[in-house]
Design a protein that fits this description.
The protein starts with 9 loop residues before the first helix and ends in a 9-residue tail after the last helix. The chain has 18 helices and twelve strands. Helix 5 packs antiparallel against helix 6. The strands form three sheets. The protein has a four-stranded mixed sheet with strand order 2-1-3-4. It has a four-stranded parallel sheet with strand order 7-6-5-8, sandwiched between helices. The protein is globular and about 60 Å long. Helix 9 links the parallel strand 6 and strand 7. Bound molecules: flavin mononucleotide and iron/sulfur cluster. Flavin mononucleotide binds next to strand 8 and helix 17. The site of iron/sulfur cluster has 14 residues, from helix 15 and helix 17.
């Protein structure tokens, strides 16, 4: 079910505080943090994420614009209440197309589970790429009661893979989740799901009911940073979604202070397949933008962007001007990198990374500075404002890029470099730490666009 009320007006917020016998400001600060709590439930939203922007979304957006609705394969996207205009279609392949039947994971001893995950070399698919077996080992090493949470927030622009999993293979996800729950010896678990995924919500809840599991679906309220695991914990505990300082890590002290295992949707699907013994190293690639058939495709870890587009996504529909290899925080690359394997090692030589595997292709007619400007605007708007370098830096850089678009310089090159360094080194979460990457990429691969800064 969608939330029943909205917007939460100041009167409603005060009434809530009085009812709960807490400070009125405490409720107000939470309400004002989440964009969807300030909107009517049946509002029409127009996505202005980079791919939708490239396809002209801003010409219809007006005041209805939202950061990214997670349906980049259908760009440009409009959402009317819970309905995605144009209807949800899937263009996909591989295990996503296999029948989705409820199945129990094999009951293996914990050590055997860890060995299988380690041997498979599975790393987290949420963006950070942390080895899965190490996280599982750490959580089990802490005294219970423990908690398991599935990260289904999927807010990174261009990323649609977890939605495909939840819509097409909810039982496979639950199979991986059951394995995680047994491993952590818990009877109850949570899925933190982004609000815009109405079809996922329905299918997931049906599958949970069919299995008779004690799994609670917690619905987010329109904040990208809540996908960051410690911000998610704050959000689930009823506060603003602001990342926590670490240590302690969620594995040690997570939801309600308990040791908590947090895994991305896709990670758990691979866990299920690895434990079944039928896994070949692969991941799900979201492909959108100037391609014939945008969608979500299973392909090897070392596939190139050109192979993905040619073999799965219907070929390029325009001359390529730039592409994003793995989501907004992964960087912006020139067409020369289309043949680079999309692995951590290969992409690091280009100053980039595979992130959440969201490949977005932009035509040569879409200016690179516009793409960079939209990316920085996204980071500036989604920063939780907890730390100064991220709060001020992203706004300043957005302004600098907008000025560059008009051939002007709002800052010297040295100052920009100083900001990038400070943001990367001193921000406390991945949003501020990674947001310099696209700026550095454009400065390196399109130096002529930054000339005005000198
Ligand atoms: C700003 C920000 C947003 C994030 N959003 C998501 C998200 O939507 N989904 C996700 O699984 N991980 C997201 N992450 C990564 C999580 O913090 C965490 O690493 C992940 O859920 C761990 O699961 P994994 O090891 O299975 O990948 C985000 C990180 C940052 C810094
Ligand atoms: S880096 Fe940005 S988003 Fe992350 S905690 Fe700091 S201000 Fe918040």
């Amino acid at each position: 079910m969608r939330r029943g009320v909205g917007p939460i007006t100041p009167e409603l917020s005060d009434a809530l505080a009085d009812h709960m016998n807490i400070r009125r400001g405490e409720v107000h600060e939470v309400v004002s943090f989440y964009s969807f709590l300030q909107e009517p439930v049946d509002v029409v939203r127009v996505c202005t994420g980079p791919v939708c922007d490239c396809m002209g979304a801003k010409t219809v957006a007006g005041e209805l614009a939202v950061a990214c609705l997670g349906h980049c394969d259908l760009a440009p996207v409009v959402m009317d209440g819970d309905d995605v205009r144009g209807g949800v279609t899937h263009r996909t392949n591989g295990f996503l197309l296999e029948p989705d039947e409820p199945r129990d994971p094999p009951a293996l001893e914990p050590d055997e589970v860890l060995t299988r995950l380690e041997d498979a070399g599975l790393t987290g698919m949420g963006g950070a790429g942390f080895p899965t077996h190490r996280k599982w080992y750490a959580v089990r090493g802490e005294p219970g009661p423990r908690v398991v949470i599935v990260n289904a927030d999927e807010g990174e622009p261009g990323t649609i893979k977890d939605r495909y999993v939840m819509e097409l293979r909810p039982h496979l996800l639950l199979e991986g989740l059951i394995a995680a729950m047994r491993f952590c010896e818990v009877d109850e678990a949570y899925v933190y799901l982004r609000e815009e995924y109405a079809t996922s919500r329905v299918r997931l809840r049906e599958a949970i009911a069919e299995r008779g599991l004690d799994v609670h679906v917690v619905v987010g309220a329109g904040s990208y940073v809540c996908g960051e695991e410690s911000a998610m914990l704050e959000s689930m505990e009823g506060r603003r979604g602001m990342p926590r300082l670490r240590p302690p890590f969620p594995a040690q002290k997570g939801y309600l202070g308990r040791p908590t295992l947090i895994n991305n949707v896709e990670t758990l699907v691979h866990v299920a397949r690895i434990l079944r013994g039928d896994w070949q190293p692969s991941r799900l690639w979201s492909v959108s933008g100037a391609v014939g058939e945008p969608g979500c495709f299973e392909a090897p870890l070392d596939v190139t962007a050109r192979q993905l587009v040619a073999e799965h996504a219907g070929g390029f529909t325009a001359d390529v001007g730039a592409f994003v290899p793995g989501g907004a925080a992964s960087g912006i690359l020139p067409p020369a990198a289309l043949d680079v394997p999309l692995t951590r090692d290969a992409l690091s030589e280009w100053g980039s990374g595979p992130g959440s595997a969201a490949v977005q292709i932009f035509p040569a007619t879409y200016p690179v500075l516009r793409l960079l400007g939209e990316t920085m605007r996204f980071f500036a708007e989604e920063s939780c404002q907890k730390c100064t370098p991220c709060r001020i830096g992203n706004r300043a850089l957005h302004h600098v890029v907008e000025e560059l678009e008009h051939g002007r310089a709002a800052m010297s090159r040295e100052k920009v470099d100083e900001w990038l360094e400070a943001m990367g080194q001193t921000s406390i979460c991945g949003l501020g730490q990674a947001s310099p990457i696209p700026v550095r990429n454009v400065a390196r691969h399109w130096p002529e666009l930054m000339e005005a800064l000198r």
